[in-house]
Protein backbone atom coordinates (compact mmCIF):
# COMPACT_ATOMS: atom_id res chain seq x y z
CA UNK A 1 0.00 0.00 0.00
CA UNK A 2 1.44 3.36 -1.01
CA UNK A 3 2.14 5.84 1.76
CA UNK A 4 -0.14 8.86 1.81
CA UNK A 5 1.21 12.24 0.73
CA UNK A 6 0.03 13.63 4.09
CA UNK A 7 1.05 10.68 6.28
CA UNK A 8 1.90 11.82 9.79
CA UNK A 9 1.30 15.53 9.28
CA UNK A 10 -1.56 17.92 9.12
CA UNK A 11 -0.57 20.59 6.60
CA UNK A 12 -3.34 23.01 7.57
CA UNK A 13 -1.96 23.27 11.10
CA UNK A 14 1.43 24.39 9.83
CA UNK A 15 2.05 28.07 9.29
CA UNK A 16 2.91 27.45 5.65
CA UNK A 17 1.51 24.32 4.02
CA UNK A 18 3.58 22.62 1.35
CA UNK A 19 2.92 20.45 -1.66
CA UNK A 20 -0.62 19.42 -2.55
CA UNK A 21 -2.12 21.06 0.54
CA UNK A 22 -0.89 24.50 -0.49
CA UNK A 23 -1.89 23.90 -4.09
CA UNK A 24 -5.41 22.80 -3.11
CA UNK A 25 -5.99 25.76 -0.79
CA UNK A 26 -4.64 28.27 -3.30
CA UNK A 27 -6.68 26.74 -6.13
CA UNK A 28 -9.87 26.76 -4.02
CA UNK A 29 -9.27 30.38 -3.04
CA UNK A 30 -8.74 31.45 -6.66
CA UNK A 31 -11.76 29.51 -7.86
CA UNK A 32 -14.17 30.63 -5.13
CA UNK A 33 -13.16 33.77 -3.23
CA UNK A 34 -10.17 35.69 -4.54
CA UNK A 35 -12.16 38.83 -5.46
CA UNK A 36 -14.48 41.03 -3.40
CA UNK A 37 -17.44 42.88 -4.85
CA UNK A 38 -16.63 46.56 -4.12
CA UNK A 39 -18.59 48.01 -1.23
CA UNK A 40 -19.75 44.60 0.01
CA UNK A 41 -18.40 41.54 1.77
CA UNK A 42 -19.43 39.32 -1.15
CA UNK A 43 -16.50 37.24 -2.36
CA UNK A 44 -16.28 35.41 -5.67
CA UNK A 45 -13.63 33.76 -7.76
CA UNK A 46 -12.62 32.68 -11.20
CA UNK A 47 -15.30 29.96 -11.16
CA UNK A 48 -18.08 32.58 -11.17
CA UNK A 49 -16.29 34.66 -13.81
CA UNK A 50 -15.62 31.64 -16.03
CA UNK A 51 -19.30 30.77 -15.77
CA UNK A 52 -20.03 33.84 -17.85
CA UNK A 53 -18.66 31.88 -20.83
CA UNK A 54 -21.58 29.61 -21.75
CA UNK A 55 -20.70 25.92 -21.45
CA UNK A 56 -16.93 26.24 -21.66
CA UNK A 57 -16.40 28.29 -18.49
CA UNK A 58 -18.19 25.90 -16.16
CA UNK A 59 -16.51 22.95 -17.85
CA UNK A 60 -13.04 24.43 -17.28
CA UNK A 61 -13.85 25.31 -13.67
CA UNK A 62 -15.06 21.72 -13.08
CA UNK A 63 -11.82 20.35 -14.51
CA UNK A 64 -9.92 22.49 -11.99
CA UNK A 65 -12.17 21.11 -9.24
CA UNK A 66 -11.17 17.59 -10.26
CA UNK A 67 -7.61 18.44 -9.18
CA UNK A 68 -8.87 18.90 -5.62
CA UNK A 69 -10.75 15.60 -5.83
CA UNK A 70 -7.61 13.76 -6.99
CA UNK A 71 -5.53 15.44 -4.25
CA UNK A 72 -8.08 14.25 -1.68
CA UNK A 73 -7.78 10.73 -3.08
CA UNK A 74 -3.98 10.89 -2.80
CA UNK A 75 -4.41 12.04 0.79
CA UNK A 76 -6.43 8.91 1.48
CA UNK A 77 -9.87 10.48 1.85
CA UNK A 78 -12.76 8.06 2.35
CA UNK A 79 -15.28 7.07 -0.30
CA UNK A 80 -17.95 9.18 1.34
CA UNK A 81 -15.69 12.25 1.30
CA UNK A 82 -14.79 11.67 -2.36
CA UNK A 83 -18.43 11.09 -3.24
CA UNK A 84 -19.47 14.32 -1.53
CA UNK A 85 -16.78 16.16 -3.49
CA UNK A 86 -17.94 14.53 -6.71
CA UNK A 87 -21.55 15.48 -6.05
CA UNK A 88 -20.48 19.07 -5.27
CA UNK A 89 -18.63 19.21 -8.60
CA UNK A 90 -21.64 17.82 -10.47
CA UNK A 91 -24.06 20.25 -8.79
CA UNK A 92 -21.70 23.16 -9.48
CA UNK A 93 -21.42 22.15 -13.14
CA UNK A 94 -25.12 21.54 -13.73
CA UNK A 95 -26.50 24.57 -11.87
CA UNK A 96 -23.57 26.73 -13.00
CA UNK A 97 -24.54 26.09 -16.63
CA UNK A 98 -27.77 28.09 -16.14
CA UNK A 99 -27.10 31.62 -17.45
CA UNK A 100 -26.84 34.32 -14.74
CA UNK A 101 -28.57 32.21 -12.04
CA UNK A 102 -25.70 29.71 -12.29
CA UNK A 103 -23.13 32.46 -11.82
CA UNK A 104 -24.95 33.73 -8.73
CA UNK A 105 -25.06 30.15 -7.47
CA UNK A 106 -21.27 29.87 -7.95
CA UNK A 107 -20.79 32.97 -5.79
CA UNK A 108 -22.92 31.42 -3.04
CA UNK A 109 -22.08 27.69 -3.20
CA UNK A 110 -18.23 27.85 -3.28
CA UNK A 111 -17.86 24.12 -3.97
CA UNK A 112 -14.05 24.16 -3.96
CA UNK A 113 -13.87 25.65 -0.49
CA UNK A 114 -16.32 22.96 0.60
CA UNK A 115 -13.88 20.39 -0.81
CA UNK A 116 -11.01 21.88 1.19
CA UNK A 117 -13.17 21.73 4.32
CA UNK A 118 -13.94 18.05 3.69
CA UNK A 119 -10.24 17.35 3.16
CA UNK A 120 -9.33 19.21 6.35
CA UNK A 121 -11.85 17.14 8.27
CA UNK A 122 -10.32 13.98 6.87
CA UNK A 123 -6.78 15.08 7.71
CA UNK A 124 -7.75 16.08 11.24
CA UNK A 125 -9.16 12.61 11.95
CA UNK A 126 -7.63 10.55 14.71
CA UNK A 127 -5.47 7.59 13.63
CA UNK A 128 -8.34 5.20 14.27
CA UNK A 129 -10.74 7.36 12.26
CA UNK A 130 -8.12 7.77 9.52
CA UNK A 131 -7.77 4.00 9.19
CA UNK A 132 -11.51 3.75 8.75
CA UNK A 133 -11.47 6.57 6.20
CA UNK A 134 -8.65 5.00 4.15
CA UNK A 135 -9.74 1.79 2.54
CA UNK A 136 -8.98 0.55 -0.94
CA UNK A 137 -10.74 3.43 -2.70
CA UNK A 138 -8.54 3.83 -5.77
CA UNK A 139 -11.06 2.27 -8.14
CA UNK A 140 -13.86 4.25 -6.56
CA UNK A 141 -12.18 7.62 -7.10
CA UNK A 142 -11.34 6.80 -10.69
CA UNK A 143 -14.97 5.84 -11.23
CA UNK A 144 -16.00 9.25 -9.90
CA UNK A 145 -13.45 11.01 -12.12
CA UNK A 146 -14.61 9.02 -15.16
CA UNK A 147 -18.28 9.80 -14.42
CA UNK A 148 -17.52 13.51 -14.01
CA UNK A 149 -15.50 13.55 -17.23
CA UNK A 150 -18.45 11.91 -18.99
CA UNK A 151 -20.72 14.56 -17.49
CA UNK A 152 -18.37 17.28 -18.71
CA UNK A 153 -18.28 15.67 -22.15
CA UNK A 154 -22.08 15.54 -22.19
CA UNK A 155 -22.22 19.24 -21.38
CA UNK A 156 -19.80 20.05 -24.19
CA UNK A 157 -21.86 17.87 -26.56
CA UNK A 158 -25.07 19.66 -25.50
CA UNK A 159 -23.48 23.04 -26.17
CA UNK A 160 -22.37 21.87 -29.63
CA UNK A 161 -25.89 20.58 -30.39
CA UNK A 162 -27.44 23.84 -29.18
CA UNK A 163 -25.02 25.87 -31.31
CA UNK A 164 -25.88 23.75 -34.38
CA UNK A 165 -29.58 24.14 -33.73
CA UNK A 166 -29.14 27.90 -33.33
CA UNK A 167 -27.13 28.07 -36.56
CA UNK A 168 -29.93 26.26 -38.41
CA UNK A 169 -32.49 28.73 -37.06
CA UNK A 170 -30.39 31.67 -38.17
CA UNK A 171 -29.77 30.16 -41.63
CA UNK A 172 -33.53 29.83 -42.32
Can you summarize this structure?
This protein is mainly α and 172 residues long. The protein is built from eight helices and two strands; from the N terminus they run αββααααααα.
Structure description:
It is a single chain. This protein is an all-alpha fold and 172 residues long. The protein has one domain. It is 69% helix and 2% strand. The chain has helices at residues 20-32, 46-50, 56-74, 79-96, 101-109, 111-123, 127-133, 138-171, and strands at 35-36, 43-44. It has a two-stranded antiparallel ribbon. Strand 1 (35-36) and strand 2 form a beta hairpin. Helix 1 (20-32) packs antiparallel against helix 3 and helix 4 (79-96) runs antiparallel to helix 5 (101-109). The chain is flat. The model is unreliable at 1-18 (pLDDT under 50).
Instruction: Return the domain count.
Output: 1
Task: Give the fraction of residues assigned to helices.
Answer: 55-70%
Give a short account of the largest sheet. 2 strands, antiparallel
User: Which strand order spans the largest sheet, edge to edge or round the barrel?
Assistant: 1-2
State the separation between the terminal residues, measured CA to CA: 62 Å
Helical stretch count? 8
Radius of gyration: 18 Å
On the 0-100 scale, what is the average pLDDT?
Answer: 79
Proportion of residues in extended strands: under 5%
Structural class: mainly alpha
Query: What coarse outline follows from CA principal-axis ratios?
Result: flat
Query: Uncertain regions: pLDDT < 50 for 5+ in a row?
Result: 1-18
Amino acid sequence: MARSVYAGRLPWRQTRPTGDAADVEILARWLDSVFTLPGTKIRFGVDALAGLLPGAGDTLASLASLYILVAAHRAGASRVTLLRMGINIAVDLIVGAIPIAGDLFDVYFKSNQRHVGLLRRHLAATPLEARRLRRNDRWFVWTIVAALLLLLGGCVYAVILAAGWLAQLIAK
